[in-house]
Amino acid sequence: MDDRPRFRLSIRCPDQHGIVARIANAIANTDGWITEAAQHTDAEAGWFFMRWVFSLPVDAEPALRERLDELARDLGMDWWLAGADTRPRVVLMVSREPHCLSDLLARWSNGELPMEIPAILSNHRDLAPLADCYGIPFEHIPVPREDREAAFATLQARLAELAPDAIVLARYMQILPPTLCDEYPERILNIHHSFLPSFVGARPYHQAFARGVKLIGATCHYVTEDLDAGPIIEQDVTRIRHDDGVQDLIRKGRDVERWVLARGLRYHLEGRVLTHGNKTIVFN
Amino acid sequence: MDDRPRFRLSIRCPDQHGIVARIANAIANTDGWITEAAQHTDAEAGWFFMRWVFSLPVDAEPALRERLDELARDLGMDWWLAGADTRPRVVLMVSREPHCLSDLLARWSNGELPMEIPAILSNHRDLAPLADCYGIPFEHIPVPREDREAAFATLQARLAELAPDAIVLARYMQILPPTLCDEYPERILNIHHSFLPSFVGARPYHQAFARGVKLIGATCHYVTEDLDAGPIIEQDVTRIRHDDGVQDLIRKGRDVERWVLARGLRYHLEGRVLTHGNKTIVFN
Amino acid sequence: MDDRPRFRLSIRCPDQHGIVARIANAIANTDGWITEAAQHTDAEAGWFFMRWVFSLPVDAEPALRERLDELARDLGMDWWLAGADTRPRVVLMVSREPHCLSDLLARWSNGELPMEIPAILSNHRDLAPLADCYGIPFEHIPVPREDREAAFATLQARLAELAPDAIVLARYMQILPPTLCDEYPERILNIHHSFLPSFVGARPYHQAFARGVKLIGATCHYVTEDLDAGPIIEQDVTRIRHDDGVQDLIRKGRDVERWVLARGLRYHLEGRVLTHGNKTIVFN
Amino acid sequence: MDDRPRFRLSIRCPDQHGIVARIANAIANTDGWITEAAQHTDAEAGWFFMRWVFSLPVDAEPALRERLDELARDLGMDWWLAGADTRPRVVLMVSREPHCLSDLLARWSNGELPMEIPAILSNHRDLAPLADCYGIPFEHIPVPREDREAAFATLQARLAELAPDAIVLARYMQILPPTLCDEYPERILNIHHSFLPSFVGARPYHQAFARGVKLIGATCHYVTEDLDAGPIIEQDVTRIRHDDGVQDLIRKGRDVERWVLARGLRYHLEGRVLTHGNKTIVFN
After folding, report:
1. To the nearest 10°, the Cα dihedral for A239, A240, A241, A247?
2. A3, A82, A249, C124: which sits with the fewest CB atoms below 10 Å from its CB?
3. Do C20 and D24 make contact, defined as CB atoms within 8 angstroms?
4. In chain D, which residue's Cα lies nearest the Cα of A240?
């Protein structure tokens, strides 16, 4: 319908009169054409959130950016403008379990996940062949128990070289040090294999089995220093029965982990996630 | 946050440049404050749909309506403006099965369904006591097989007196005549006890049992002359097992019918449903 | 197919060789005809659980009971035999919120819940009219904050008179004293409005909102002295969005509470629930 | 708990008195130990279905088989006894879309799908690299439009050599000839990308989009001569929205296809599926 370059704009600001009109005018005055729009007012917090997708004439981006800068000053607004077809650089980090990695690679290869994958990093060598299948560089950075600090320094240095837009812990079974969490705020996604806030920490399926819950779940969240407590992007559950043992929970849980991580990552890649405090707004 | 009267505006028009800006300006210029906004562009059909909720200063509504009339001419746009707390008049029609009626009345009484119920009409007397419990007038309009035409004339006349904004067929087990369907386009909601387009017509649970499906469903749709073929507002399903007989399907199906009808009706009452051809846009 | 009286038998015993054959022979030798059978072996715990439904010739029940007593001694087995059409006496306890009560009464009246309801007890008068609609005696037993002990003594005495097979806390917003919990082990069902073990205690929807979860749930469990920690019978969840405020969570949660309580209660009434430690086996 | 060989037994026979006792005795007399048991009586049809898992002493299988042969004559019973750890030979057939194949291979490699895969057959070469990744032989058997008959003769001959226990059409976009369907009754599984019986035939997602349904689904069924009408093994659905275009339906549908095919295949491999007429009993 429209062959011009497409952009997506996200904004976040204190709620106030006339925001929509001012943004809409900025876009209309740049001859933009809006094709998707979602917004949210958090009435309690008094904040406004928005994600719009629109096309612009070639070369109109700088003028729009200028106008958005002015509006940002007036409205006290954070804003992010990106090409709608941007493919962020995403580093995947894994340990030994292949199910999340193989799912992400299959979706990436299908075109479902708009990203570049400069590298897959792992503290084990097990998943190197899977990376090879999809032609992605695999790097082994061991994390020996007795020398975690040095290992994480190496890892952090290597990440800095890779310059990722996002990092995905696709069942990377190590707790990242605070310094690494802080370097990539709201850019590290983790999949936790429980329906948080239930069963924080280690072996959540064993915890779920012991408690006798009737559903198990998984949670995709941004990583913060506070373990398993970062802003939740996506969650889902699946039903279990009394005849499911721990191994069945692990098997059924793998499916939930896959869906939840894939959906959460897609929302992130498409710029659908905004945060406010420890909560997310997900325009999906 | 804002004690002024709140309105909701829905529009539908061919997609074109600058719609959002023009509507947003119309609202901003009337000193409106937008609190909810959802829109949809059907790129294939080239149509634009929108639902916004905003507050206005007291007495500002006429000016906005004038401005919207102008825009409607320019943009070829249909529009509906209503107070956000409007409670439409809804006539409920039932036969003998209480499950949908009792659910709707419980939700209405809870405040979940913003409507007035001037009357419950039925071709049987069975549900009169349930209507009494909630203090709603119950009227018996029999539909004898040999004289359906006269019965429906009586019914239609009575409906005209009741002047409903919407009519809900809450398991009203009669096919309405075309003349009645035509009088209330997109204002008669039916709950069909199958996941349409599967199992159109009579005894869908028996059809589902015979086919051996693993899920059964229900569909809330606008009634048109074409039986079970109107625009779908909401659908859902529930899982069945090989040991569920037809009676179990009927029992499990009652739950799905309740959820689906209640959700579909709420979307309708809150002005969240727009149609385009035989499809709905549901801003939920 | 078979007009003879139908029974259901549940057993629980340490797992050992030949249990099924011995029970099956006991039933075959009494000329029983099995129509439903479900069993479960907890391999880790080494326990066996079973629920069978069968018909017997008139007057054959005593002989079967005798045989089961012998088997119980041999196998170290607990067993429960009941007419398959038994309708347990169930006292419903409520506070002010009608949604669970109206749902249970509608299902009871539909025939979905095979029980007698000798009385509805409440610490408030609000739901008396709803009880009246369905012709169930309503009794007001206030629980003043300053004299809870005496109030619960009155309540416990009244329950003793009512001699219930089960008690359902259908949003009864009081914590029962241990002495009452102990009198009805595995016979008091509660609906907790969260997906336990998340959000134990007061105001779970507010807790869920604050944490920013993407699904909310409800849990039906047996009441024990340990608040919200008894054996879980049933759970379910529903999806929420960033634009759902606490009031929306409460509204959406009401639906989940209804399903979960109705399903959990039905399993209990039909003798489908066995416990082992703090977990349940649910033959559904 | 028990290191002896484990077996699973499925039976199907007209319902009659004492079946369970007779089978249980046959197993007990062979010193068998039952660990899983599920049965179903279709009261309407008067048929009985059963699946038991048990351990036997080494070398006890022939005696049990003899006893089962006798019972089969008495009861008019079909029966299947197999080692519980049997890994059937399964040929996968695909066209160009990788999503089902990559999912099945990942699950197979994980140990979730107990099968051997002697070959992947395809009418295209596209998925050869994926087969290579997992070390499975890939064979290209083209099906040119002008010479389908010869192509299918080649295919059928090759299948005969491969001697599969089951064949999975993992998005094999060709209609198999009746002669091939007949050779493998209840042994060819297909994944159809709609919630059957809706949207039979070609391009079901386009049909679903045109009809405006609110959920899309997938169906795993045994292939019969009658296209998309064989016994249904498993189905599921996922929610779609008005802003999902046909491409979104295809994307979301891929997930449902994957779950449904993987679950249906697992049930088949574990001997959990019995048929009766055009319906399945699935002991899951």
Report:
1. 160
2. A3
3. yes
4. D284
Q: What are phi and psi of D138, to 5 degrees?
A: -115, 130
Domain boundaries, chain A: 6-83, 90-282
- Residue that the structure tokens 């739950």 belong to: B255
The verdict on a CB contact (< 8 Å) between B251 and C112 is yes
Backbone φ, ψ for residue B37 (5° rounding)? -150, 135
- What is C6-83's CATH topology? Alpha-Beta Plaits (3.30.70)
Does the distance separating the beta carbons of C25 and D20 come in below 8 Å? no
Q: Cβ of B106 and C103 within 8 Å? A: yes
Give percent above pLDDT 70 in chain C. 100
The residue among B133, B256, B265 with the most chain C CBs within 10 A of its CB, best to mutate, is B133
Q: Which residues of D are catalytic?
A: 228
How many Cβ pairs closer than 8 A exist between chain A and C?
A: 76
Strand order in the sheet with D188-192: D138-140, D120-122, D90-94, D166-169, D188-192, D215-222, D232-239
| Predicted confidence (pLDDT) per residue in C113-128, tens digit | 999 999 999 999 999 9
Averaged pLDDT in 10-residue chunks for chain A of 284 residues: 88 94 94 93 93 95 97 97 95 97 97 97 97 97 95 97 98 94 97 95 94 97 92 98 95 97 98 96 95
Instruction: Check CB contact of A36 with chain D, cutoff 8 Å.
Output: yes
Q: Which residue of C has its CA nearest to A260?
A: C214
Chain D partners within 8 Å of A255 (Cβ): 259
3-state secondary structure string across chain A: CCCCCEEEEEEEEECCCCHHHHHHHHHHHCCCEEEEEEEEEECCCCEEEEEEEEECCCCCHHHHHHHHHHHHHHHCCEEEEEECCCCCEEEEEECCCCHHHHHHHHHHHHCCCCCECCCEEECCCCCHHHHHHCCCCEEECCCCHHHHHHHHHHHHHHHHHHCCCEEEECCCCCCCCHHHHHHCCCCEEEEECCCCCCCCCCCHHHHHHHHCCCEEEEEEEECCCCCCCCCEEEEEEEECCCCCCHHHHHHHHHHHHHHHHHHHHHHHHCCCEEEECCEEEECC
CB interface of C with D, residues 37-96, below 8 Å: 37-39, 41, 43, 46
Please tell me the class of the B90-282 domain.
Answer: alpha beta
Task: Enumerate residues 6+ apart whose C-beta is below 8 A from A202.
Answer: none
Instruction: For residue D281, list chain B residues with Cβ-Cβ distance below 8 A.
Output: 242
The answer, yes or no, to whether ipTM is higher than 0.90 is yes
Q: How far apart are the first and last CA of chain A?
A: 23
Across the interface, do A36 and D243 touch by the CB < 8 Å criterion? yes
User: Bridge-partner residues for A239, per DSSP?
Assistant: A215
Closest CA of chain B from C63, distance in Å: 30
Residue A236 bears catalytic tag:
no
B99–C contact, CB cutoff 8 A: yes
